[in-house]
Write a structure and sequence with these properties.
The chain is an alpha/beta fold. It is built from eight helices and seven strands.
């Protein structure tokens, strides 16, 4: 049984407690990442009829926002937790262009190549000895010129470390936050081109009035989250 199988039905409750220090609801972070993804795709490629693989979709909280901001794309969500995939399928059954599958963490189901592969806060739950194999699998299923967009929690940020202790390390004792420098190296070793990093979530909700300054701070490695955009 995958680690997150037993949390599939009440993951939101635990996540809400963990991120309470930020003052935001868990859905804020789901939508925030998708809005960034939509902006990236608008800047780098046409969003019409794109295929997106959500690698590590969990209980499918992201897919509704993908449909909201990019209604013309097709989405394939996969996760090692069969229980989470069942929840995701039920909660997104109204969307005809979204489907879900469980997988073994190594072999991505089917043989489709994707325009975009999206991965949000997943790799710190994958043992480091398996990172290269997982990234190689992702690389092999990305179209030439396609984009890999990966988000991770930033261990340089002390509040993120506290949230990880309260949430990720509790749910998954093997979780291990990844430094942005380690992740860039791993991407390059697997052939991903031009990995560009950005840092996000600098202000808690009580300072949300300052959030419009974040676009000027994305170079500063103190945001609670970071992401890389790279190509094949």
């Amino acid at each position: 049984m995958a680690v997150f199988d037993k949390y599939a039905d009440n993951y939101d409750e635990g996540h809400k407690k963990a991120v309470s220090l930020s003052g935001y609801e868990p859905s804020y972070f789901d939508e925030y990442k998708v809005k960034i993804l939509a902006d990236i795709l608008s800047d780098k490629m046409s969003r019409n009829s794109l295929s997106i693989l959500n690698y590590g979709c969990g209980t499918g909280k992201t897919e509704g926002y993908i449909h909201k901001y990019m209604p013309d794309v097709s989405v394939h969500g996969i996760d090692v937790s069969e229980a989470s995939v069942r929840v995701a399928s039920m909660s997104n059954s109204q969307y005809s262009r979204i489907r879900f599958d469980a997988f073994d963490g190594k072999n991505i189901p089917g043989d489709e190549l994707y325009d975009v592969i999206f991965c949000a806060n997943v790799f710190h739950h994958i043992p480091r000895k398996e990172h290269m194999e997982s990234l190689a699998g992702i690389y092999s299923r990305l179209k030439v010129g396609g984009l890999f967009v990966i988000f991770e929690l930033n261990p340089i940020n002390p509040l993120t470390q506290l949230v990880a202790i309260q949430n990720d390390y509790k749910f998954d004792p093997s979780a291990n936050l990844l430094s942005p420098y380690y992740l860039k190296s791993a991407l390059c070793k697997n052939g991903f081109k031009n990995p560009e990093s950005r840092f996000t979530i600098f202000f808690p909700s009580v300072l949300s009035g300052l959030s419009h300054f974040e676009k000027y701070l994305m170079w500063l490695p103190l945001g609670a989250h970071y992401y890389y955009v790279s190509t094949k």
